[in-house]
Amino acid sequence: MRLNVNGTEREVDAPEEMPLLWVLRDVLALTGTKFGCGMAQCGACTVHLDGEAVRSCSLPLSAVAGRKVTTIEGLSADGSHPVQKAWLEQDVVQCGYCQPGQIMSAAALLAHTPNPSDEEIDVAMAGNICRCGTYQRIREAVRSAAANARRRAER
Amino acid sequence: MTALSRRALLQQSLLSGAGLFVAFHVPRKARAAQQPQPKHLPPANAFVRVAPDESVTVLLAHSEMGQGIWTGLAMMIAEELECDWSKVRVEHAPAAPVYAHPAFGMQMTGGSSSTWSELERYRTAGAMARAMLVEAAALRWKTDPKKLRTENGFVVHGKDRLSYGQLAVAAQALPAPKSVRLKDRKDWKLLGKPTRRLDSPEKITGKAQFGIDVHFPGLRTALVARSPVFGGKVKSFDAAKALAVKGVEKVVEVPSGVAVIADGFWSAKTGRDALEVDWDPGPGATLDTAELLESYRAQARTKGPVAAEKGDTDAALSKAAKKLVAEYDVPYLAHATMEPMNCAVKLGGGACEIWTGTQFQTMDQMSAAKIAGVPVEKVSIHTQFLGGGFGRRATPSSDFVSEAVHVAKAAGVPVKTVWTREDDMRGGYYRPLFLHRIEVGLDEKSRPVAWKHGIVGQSILAGTPFEQFMVKNGIDATSIEGVVGSPYLEAVPDRRVTLHSPRLPVPVLWWRSVGNTHTAFAMESMIDELAWAAGRDPLEFRLALLAGKPRHQRALKTAAEKAGWGRPLPAGRARGMAVHESFGSIVAQVAEVSVDETKEIHVHKVSCAVDCGTAINPLGIEAQVQGAMAYGLSAVLRSEITIKQGRVEQGNFHEYEVLRLPDMPEVSVTILESAGKMGGIGEPAAAPIAAAVANAVYALTKQRLRSLPLRLA
């Protein structure tokens, strides 16, 4: 089966019911996308499918054939995506396990909604669990990524 | 304990490249004094490495699981070494005796102890490396080392400068200094300053490697089918259907169940789903948590082993002007780390190699050595980042490591076990279900004069190697911490605390803040009940009882002031407070809550004041206080493990609910430094939140909720 991962066409030999998460992790060795629950409850496996945030643990390979997948490894080459920069600035991470999923959810939110309200942030990020409790700094980082983008636009 | 020789470690260090190595043994000792000067400088070997490329590599004796020691311990070395902070990198140290916890004598991470226990050792390592670099420069310049100074990775002599990288090889050849002097606190440049984490760049790009990410050629993935009932055993199994799944290579029986070994997670899981196992559930099949709680209620009324006693409590209670009785209970809780348990093992050549995120390297080495049939020093552990620990990755039985070694041994190939969320949630090692029954006698002025306190709950330490040190006369110290030693209790003239520790097949374990998860809830709720019964303001009432405890008073007053205690709130809001000491630190919290039309409780704000003695990295402390509070709040509002007919009823996050971003209150953290003993910071803020919220709910609704999670009638 063919799919586009982080801008590269990949031919994947895997059963079509295999969730995208395991194709990424076990077949393509892209381990930045994490396994947390296996049933779209925690958001650790969040990737972008044609620009939308999706839970890759519950998405069979057959559903993504021929589509564009972006993982944390493809969000930026060097951690320079505005959301990643905001995450550094706000010192968000703790154990770090959920953070690729958090960042992918936040990046998708800001791509569609450059100036999200607090309610919009709550809704977009509610599907991503963090057991370390970094939520307050996640909120601040999403707000600051949005504010930084506004500032750049005004210049 | 382990016996990896220093020689072997030295060889290992020499193999890893040119440069200066400093490490040493500090004798086991209790908590470091405020500004200790190191007395014994042990032989040099391995805590910091200065390399010719100017890099400074810190070897972390403990595990990074989110708590920030990757940064905090590196700051200690950098402070004394006076190196360039941008050149500092960190690695997990191998498992070896030299990395044993300075206070606890084994290599481990827990008890909120890494920072206070390493303040002397890591600073000394930095100071020794600095002294050797200065000595190397003095030899080069043929001058007295006393005439030299260091700054930001250079040794400076007038206008001459030599970088640490230029001196690294020469310094390594020098003998270690016989003594070093650590800086006075007033001269600290880095310690005490808010400092961003060193592990962020790899964690925001997906490059950070956790145990579950480990891969190397030949490594197989295994999922284990475990008994649906604690203590159950495999009667028989039929592997045919599992083996028919593409990618499944082997099915083997291990002590904990039946393992399906495959070329990846998905085939292993598909194979395990197809596997047919007939279980002998054993006596655990009748277990029911609702019945258990009722039996605990009955036990709490009977006298158990005495944990603490003063005066004649029964007589004082019968003479009291007024009596209050309350029972508080808390359920089993899973840690639910975001990264489910996993462990990779490779056996062969008389050695056992392990890749995992663990808090308990020394115990894991010992367990693995026994199973693999190799000497302890032949067990190497490559500690990976932990996708959360909270105590779950510190099992005295090394459960997930032991199992993986069994699987690798039975399968005859290198194997990585991966637990699904359901495996992880139903796999036990829970915070035990506990019940507290408290009877308090009050005098005419509503002051507590008699306190009878019965606690019922499983012992975490019974049956573990720690039992001999931490269970005395039937009293597990972790079951009573926070009640025994409570400043409120100590102020009561007649008091008795008793403990029943029923033995059950449910595996139990420390869960962020351990006994304080339930003792703080019981104590701080009861105190609040007493305040209301006396018609006193909960803050004033507490301050009066805490007369001899200035640190508690200051924390409480600060949290109250920041929360606007006593100032009016909009309709439908109320505040509640709690203060609790644990792991040597004092945390006061004031929660502001509301209740919606569906009777759901919302926590809007939490004001925290924390006194942990010396603050090493305020930015990290703030994160730990927010995070521990949030971890505790999950258990206040949502989480609960229940068991029916021996089966755990929750399997995933839709059933075992945890705090999510919209539930996160606005948290303010005030750090109160004090000259007192330095305390821990990873756990203490998890303890008081349950009572702070329950007390606020009472203030709002006049319903006293005494069970967690809190549910309004």
Topology:
The complex is a heterodimer of chains A (155) and B (713).
Chain A: E1 2-5, E2 8-11, H1 20-27, E3 46-49, E4 52-55, E5 68-70, H2 72-75, H3 82-89, H4 99-112, H5 118-125, H6 135-154
Parallel strand pairs in A: 1-5
Antiparallel strand pairs in A: 1-2, 3-4, 3-5
Helix pairs in contact in A: 3-6, 4-5
Chain B: H1 6-15, E1 20-22, E2 48-50, E3 56-60, H2 69-81, E4 88-92, H3 114-141, E5 149-151, E6 154-157, E7 160-163, H4 164-172, H5 200-204, E8 220-226, E9 233-238, H6 240-243, E10 248-254, E11 257-262, H7 265-274, E12 276-280, H8 289-300, E13 306-310, H9 313-319, E14 322-330, E15 342-348, E16 351-356, H10 361-372, E17 379-383, H11 399-411, E18 415-418, H12 421-426, E19 434-442, E20 448-457, H13 467-470, E21 471-472, E22 475-476, H14 477-480, H15 487-490, E23 494-500, H16 516-533, H17 538-545, H18 550-563, E24 574-582, E25 585-595, E26 601-613, H19 618-637, E27 643-644, E28 647-648, E29 666-673, H20 689-701
Parallel strand pairs in B: 3-4, 8-18, 16-17, 20-23, 26-29
Antiparallel strand pairs in B: 1-2, 2-3, 5-6, 6-7, 8-11, 9-12, 10-11, 13-23, 14-19, 15-16, 15-18, 19-20, 21-22, 24-25, 25-26, 27-28
What do you see in this structure?
Chain A has about 160 residues and is of the alpha+beta class. Chain A folds into 2 domains: about 1-75, Ubiquitin-like (UB roll) (Roll); about 80-155, [2Fe-2S]-binding domain (DNA polymerase, domain 1). Chain A contains 6 helices and 5 strands, in the order ββαβββααααα. Chain A has helices at about 20-25, 70-75, 80-90, 100-110, 120-125, 135-155; strands at about 1-5, 10, 45-50, 50-55, 70. A 5-stranded mixed sheet of chain A has the order 2-1-5-3-4. Chain A is globular and about 45 Å long. The termini of chain A are far apart. The mean pLDDT of chain A is about 95. Chain B is an alpha+beta fold and about 725 residues long. Chain B has 3 domains: about 5-205, Aldehyde oxidase/xanthine dehydrogenase, molybdopterin binding domain (Aldehyde Oxidoreductase, domain 4), CATH 3.30.365.10; about 210-280 and about 340-420, Aldehyde oxidase/xanthine dehydrogenase, molybdopterin binding domain (Aldehyde Oxidoreductase, domain 4, 2-Layer Sandwich), CATH 3.30.365.10; about 290-330 and about 430-700, Aldehyde oxidase/xanthine dehydrogenase, molybdopterin binding domain (Aldehyde Oxidoreductase, domain 4), CATH 3.30.365. In chain B, about 30% of the residues lie in helices and about 25% in strands. Chain B contains 20 helices and 29 strands. Chain B has a 7-stranded mixed sheet with strand order 10-11-8-18-15-16-17. In chain B, strand 3 (about 55-60), helix 2 (about 70-80) and strand 4 (about 90) form a beta-alpha-beta unit. In chain B, helix 2 (about 70-80) packs parallel to helix 3. The longest helix of chain B has 28 residues, at about 115-140. Chain B is globular and about 85 Å long. Chains A and B meet through helix 1, helix 3, helix 4, helix 5 and helix 6 of A and helix 5 and helix 19 of B.
